[in-house]
Write a structure and sequence with these properties.
Elements (H helix, E strand, L loop, with lengths): L1 H23 L2 E13 L13 E9 H9 L5 E4 L7 E4 L4 H5 L6 E6 L2 E4 L4 E9 L2 E5 L3 E3 L4 E3 L2 E7 H4 L5 E2 L3 E6 L3 E6 L8 E4 L2 E6 L1 E17 L5 E6 L2 E9 H6 L6 E5 H5 L9 E3 L5 E6 L4 E6 L2
């Protein structure tokens, strides 16, 4: 029985190999989307975006097309470093060399058929990084302060007209769930203009300070009235407020009244038409304000005798 099974197994393997051999020697056509890789000199700046990829239809034997499909380095290489002025490149020219295709493979169609190369004055500047990291915290935890990005800006080089329009560069999107401790790592810069700009660095470090969340109340916090003229006096009703704060356990346990400032500006009182004023609360950036009681203060303006 084992001998029969072995014969059947080997027969199936042989039949499959024969079928593959016959079929892979036939000709086929294949549609490919191939990334464009631009090689340029540092003194060059492209003013228009080059297509990120080209669509190519190739024809060849199954063996050759299989090699293309499993290739990890299939790129349409475009060397523009020797171009001195605006040019138009016909994508069909030297396509086999640019794609590193075997001579037995023919290109039936390529889109786009031309690529325009337009140059501009080279410029560079530093732009801030926009953080696209999403942190979902475990219940009862909070992020203390702002995330730290290192560096917090990147150098971007390219066309002067293009560079002037760029206000920030985003990171890639990354999601962390159920976080209950400090978080750090490395994230890539999202470069959507790879072929026409240069960005340094390509990666940045990030750090989040995550602590167990807590709340703390401060009773009878004095409200300061600032910039009161020398000949006037302001009485607030009431003169004190109650604050409820939230933050990480470590930071909240160390905070004291000297780090809290509640105030109102005299010019806001003077221009008020409602009969009450809302105080401004200044607290450390690692702490958030939950509630202030009362939210509105009445006032009396008196002339000094």
């Amino acid at each position: 029985m084992k001998k029969i099974f072995k014969i059947l197994f080997l027969s199936c393997i042989f039949a499959l190999a024969l079928w593959l051999y016959i079929n892979l020697n036939l000709s086929y056509s294949l549609d490919l989307s191939i990334p464009v890789e631009v090689q340029s000199a540092k003194s060059q700046a492209l003013s228009e975006e080059i297509p990120a990829s080209i669509e190519v239809t190739v024809k060849g034997k199954g063996w050759d097309l299989l090699n293309i499909l499993i290739s990890k380095n299939l790129r349409y290489s475009l060397d523009i470093s020797r171009l001195k002025k605006d040019s138009r490149i016909i994508t069909e020219q030297f396509v086999n060399e640019r794609l590193n295709l075997q001579s037995s493979v023919s290109v039936l169609k390529i889109t786009p058929d031309t690529i325009n190369i337009n140059f501009d004055k080279v410029a560079d500047k530093f732009v801030p990084i926009k953080n696209n990291i999403i942190v979902n915290l475990k219940d009862g935890y909070s992020i203390v302060g702002n995330p730290i990005l290192n560096p917090d800006s990147v150098r971007i080089q390219g066309s002067s007209a293009l560079i002037n329009k760029i206000k920030y560069i985003p990171t890639g999107t990354k999601v962390f769930n159920n976080v209950n401790s400090n978080l750090s790592g490395v994230i890539n810069i999202k470069d959507t203009l790879t072929n026409i700009t240069r960005i340094e660095p390509k990666q940045i470090n990030f750090t989040y300070n995550v602590q167990l969340s807590a709340e703390k109340n401060f009773e009878d916090v004095d409200v300061e009235v600032s910039n009161v003229p020398e000949d006037k006096e302001v009485l607030l009703i009431p003169p004190k407020v109650k604050l409820s704060l939230r933050g990480g356990v470590d930071h909240l346990s160390q905070i004291n009244l000297s780090e809290i400032n509640v105030k109102v500006e005299f010019n806001k009182i003077e221009s008020d038409t409602l009969g009450y004023i809302i105080p401004e609360v200044n607290i450390p950036k690692e702490i958030s304000l939950l509630k202030i009681e009362p939210q509105k203060l009445q006032y009396i303006i008196k002339k000094k005798l």
